[in-house]
Amino acid sequence: MTLSVVIPAFNEERLLPATLTALHQSLESFHQRAWSSEIIVCDNNSSDRTPEIARAHGARVVFEPINMIGRARNAGAAAANGQWILFLDADSIPSPALLTLVLQAIESSRVFAGGSTIRLDEGPPSAHFATGVWNLISRLGRLPAGSFIFVEADAFREVGGFSLKQYAGEEIDLARRLKKSERARGRSLAILSGAPLVTSARKVRLYKPWEIASFMIRAVFRPKSTMSNREACSIWYDGRR
């Protein structure tokens, strides 16, 4: 069996090295069970050294010229050879314990897709509180955070991958379609909570609270028009790093 790890990356030269270093270490649990693995970084039209850094850390690099997270993830998945795909953000650190939980979930044969609760690497108490609220919603609704999604490759392709109409929230749309798919019958989409994914709190540092709150309010009350508008999702696309 092969696990393909797909990392969408736009100008991630600063944080990508730590992510790839941690990933190589954490994949050891799969290798011990005779799995092979591959790491695919999708360069989403970066203007920095992202592709060179990815190659230097043993990743295969594919290119997606249109700057859109869903497109980058789909381009990486299209190049994947694995029976399972793990989508990981370039600013997140997966621990060996988390990858072991993923392996156990896969080998249980009861899970066809899943995600993980998350923990910020820094930030004020309000940001950690908001993360805790999200983790509760994620577990109750079985909705994976976009920073960490594992899925059976056939199930992912059966539903057509990530939406090309959404600039944000595409992971929620994918989860809803996956749970309705034929592959879901008799199996579940699991949110793992035993070893939360550590992810960067840089948005808290780079954006003012009112900027983040403004997006969240629009996303709650006008989700379709907000998520399909690049300008409305600027905190993902304006290039601040």
The average pLDDT value, as a whole number, equals: 95
Q: What is the highest CATH level, the class? A: Alpha Beta
**Proportion of residues in extended strands:** 15-25%
Globally, the shape reads globular
Question: What percentage of residues falls in helices of 4 or more residues?
Answer: 40-55%
Instruction: Supply Rg.
Output: 17 Å
Fill in the CATH topology. Spore Coat Polysaccharide Biosynthesis Protein SpsA, Chain A
- So, the CATH homologous superfamily? Spore Coat Polysaccharide Biosynthesis Protein SpsA, Chain A
CA-CA gap between termini: 36 Å
Low-confidence stretches: none
The number of helical elements comes to 12
Largest sheet: 8 strands, mixed
How many β-strands, per DSSP? 8
In short:
The protein is of the alpha/beta class.
Walk me through this protein's architecture:
- With 241 residues, the chain is of the alpha/beta class.
- The chain has one domain (2-201): Alpha-Beta Complex (Spore Coat Polysaccharide Biosynthesis Protein SpsA, Chain A), CATH 3.90.550.10.
- It is 44% helix and 22% strand.
- The protein contains 12 helices and 8 strands.
- It has helices spanning 16-26, 28-32, 50-56, 69-78, 96-107, 125-141, 153-158, 170-179, 202-206, 209-221, 223-227, 234-237; strands at residues 2-9, 36-43, 60-63, 84-88, 92-93, 111-120, 148-152, 188-199.
- An 8-stranded mixed beta sheet has the order 3-2-1-4-7-6-8-5, with helices on both faces.
- α1 (16-26) crosses α5 (96-107).
- The longest helix is centred in the middle third of the chain and has 17 residues, at 125-141.
- The radius of gyration is 17 Å and the shape is globular.
- The termini are far apart.
- The model has no long low-confidence stretch (mean pLDDT 95).
